[in-house]
Known about the structure:
The protein is of the alpha/beta class. It has 2 domains: 26-102 and 149-252, Rossmann fold, CATH 3.40.50.150; 103-146, no CATH class. The protein has helices at residues 32-48, 66-75, 89-100, 104-121, 124-144, 163-168, 192-195, 201-209; strands spanning 55-59, 79-86, 151-155, 173-179, 213-224, 234-242, 245-252. It has a 7-stranded mixed sheet with strand order 3-2-1-4-5-7-6, with helices on one face. Strand 6 (234-242) and strand 7 (245-252) form a beta hairpin. Helix 1 (32-48) crosses helix 2 (66-75) and helix 4 (104-121) packs antiparallel against helix 5. The protein is globular and about 55 Å long.
Amino acid sequence: MVYRFAKEREDYAHYASGKVFYNLPGHPAFPIRLASETFQRCDAVRKARGVDSPVTLYDPCCGGAYHLSILAYFHWENIAEIIASDLDSSALAVAGRNLSLLTLEGLAQRMQEIERMEASFGKASHQEALLSADVLRARLISLSAKHHIPTRLFQADALQQTADQGLLGKQKVDLVFIDIPYGIKSNWITPAAIQAGEIDPVWLLLENLRNVLASAAVVAVSALKQQKIAHAGYQQVGKLKLGKRQVTMLMPR
Ligand SMILES: C[S@@+](CC[C@H](N)C(=O)[O-])C[C@H]1O[C@@H](n2cnc3c(N)ncnc32)[C@H](O)[C@@H]1O
């Protein structure tokens, strides 16, 4: 894959899942460089349509909200707000912890937590995590001096016709970035009709999202390469392939 924006192979070690950021057990962490490239390509699509404002970023299958939190650290200036939802309450608990790391208070609490683990177990990994937390803190001080990124987290079924619309109220979102369940370790939590194979969950997800998209909104869906990501109400505006993953970028017609 040719990177058009995230051209430099940066050292992302300080941002690794399970170090300072919390890991969602059973879910592979989203690759940071791919997340960054996807975000920037979506932003470029919006700009080509004449829209250049910071985005309200939404993930209706947020899991631990790792890639949303990472995107904030790397694209702070281009993000106005982060909204995250998931059906699984244990995922939401992790998401809340990760999104708290976008504030200095939340990061300070995380550092105290790691310090307590370091004092109890004396592991080298905890010392390394504290060094990484220092790097994140320095970055967050300079980022949060520019503006604060509000975050909103709620429980919702992305496959229910009205769930997204109801919980977002009248709010519209500019960029949806979803890492959908792959069906290996992570599965759709689905109504019976989908389990019976009568309805494609990806189609239903995209159908529901149409209610909450702002004009010139872009939807990026990360999935396994063999999954078909299509809906007649959307046009494809980009595609990335990396390893077993594909990221399909769509705009509503
Ligand atoms: C691949 S994981 C997302 C991981 C996330 N990108 C991260 O960085 O932590 C997919 C998520 O979809 C959620 N999910 C499955 N079915 C859902 C549904 N019907 N509505 C909302 N979320 C659902 C799962 O609970 C899981 O957290």
